[in-house]
Specification:
alpha/beta; globular; 8-stranded parallel β-barrel; 323 residues
Length: 323
């Protein structure tokens, strides 16, 4: 498994991170398509395969995700690092401290390895939030501070608000089809040694090859995504075909190739969700795939032409209204 340094901490985390947004969430079929036991087995399988960082948040499954991870950790705690997040509506000084205590209780931990601000809240001064974060570090409740969904400007302000600590990571959307962070944010983070934790690394399943212009997803979460409109998927076909070709060449899946492309970038780790043991093992295997420079460049060149446009969004909206 390829490893990535977490900021400038000296801690090396697996390039594939287990994402647990779906743990405990009815939106993704929890309780119907998969169970608590399936989620726990995904944790155990990930650790067995070399994944050493699990990402969750207090809002995932309204706390159930943290609870499930807490149960699973009883068997593997010494082998894994835990990252969780404080919600955007809890970013006052007291709100952060109380939210952290609740997360610690649900996880069954005395210390959280990486505590992240889930979303910036323009109504709450970032100074309040970061002051609370530093207190949590001082009190031994958290080891390191991260942010999530922070633009470059907000990231800089968050760092400036800290006195004795620094931001070690920024969790943002990043994949072959959504590469906006490459313009400013990614170069800054590489230069400053701030790790990018990339969520939605498979563009909600588009990069797995599961969907096409003639086979669109039916769940509401994906239906509203302009990347899964028929017009966009037609334009994306050359890239998807190339992912399929490379996958056959390296004896992997399209998803694994897309993940391998992502973690070929410096200071980038991919947060890949899994609902069961098999999905966890498939995701982890991507961290062992090495693409050639030629493969990486060709995939990159095809994807640069694929930013969704206004009409893709309109068509996605029409699909939702017509349901």
């Amino acid at each position: 498994m390829k490893l990535v340094e977490l900021g400038s901490t000296g801690i090396r985390v697996s390039s594939i991170v287990l994402g647990t947004w779906q743990f405990g969430s009815a939106t993704w079929g929890y309780g119907k398509g998969y169970s608590e036991r399936d989620c726990m087995e995904a944790v155990w399988a990930s650790v067995e395969a070399g994944v050493n960082l699990i990402d969750t948040a207090e809002v995932y499954g309204l706390g159930v995700s943290e609870q499930i991870i807490g149960k699973a950790l009883k068997e593997v705690r010494d082998e894994v690092l835990i990252a969780t997040k404080v919600a955007g509506h809890h970013l006052t000084y007291d709100g952060v401290l109380k939210a952290c205590e609740r997360s610690l209780n649900r996880l069954g931990l005395k210390m959280i390895d990486l505590y992240q601000v889930h979303f910036p809240n323009p109504l709450i001064p970032i100074g309040q939030t970061m002051k609370a974060m530093e207190k949590l570090v001082k009190d031994g409740k958290i080891r390191h501070i991260g942010v999530s969904n922070f633009s470059l400007g907000r990231l800089i302000k968050a760092r400036e608000a800290l006195k004795s600590e620094d931001v070690v990571s920024n969790q943002v959307r990043y994949n072959l089809l959504q590469r906006q962070i490459e313009k400013e944010l990614l170069p800054y983070c590489v230069r400053e040694k701030i790790t990018i934790l990339a969520y939605s690394p498979l563009a909600q399943g588009v990069l797995t090859g599961k969907y096409s212009a003639d086979n669109l997803p039916k769940d509401l979460v994906r239906t509203v995504n302009p990347l899964v409109s028929s017009s966009y998927l037609r334009r994306a076909k050359p890239l998807l075909d190339e992912l399929r070709r490379i996958a056959a060449e390296v004896n992997a899946t399209m998803a694994q190739v897309a993940l391998a492309w992502l973690v070929s970038k410096p200071y980038v780790a991919a947060i890949a969700g899994a609902k069961n043991r098999q999905q966890a093992l498939e995701n982890a295997a991507a961290g062992k795939i090495t693409l050639t420079d030629k493969q990486i460049e060709y995939i990159s060149s095809l994807s640069r032409q694929l930013r969704p446009n206004f009409l893709d969004g309109v068509r996605s909206f029409v699909r939702v209204v017509a349901r």
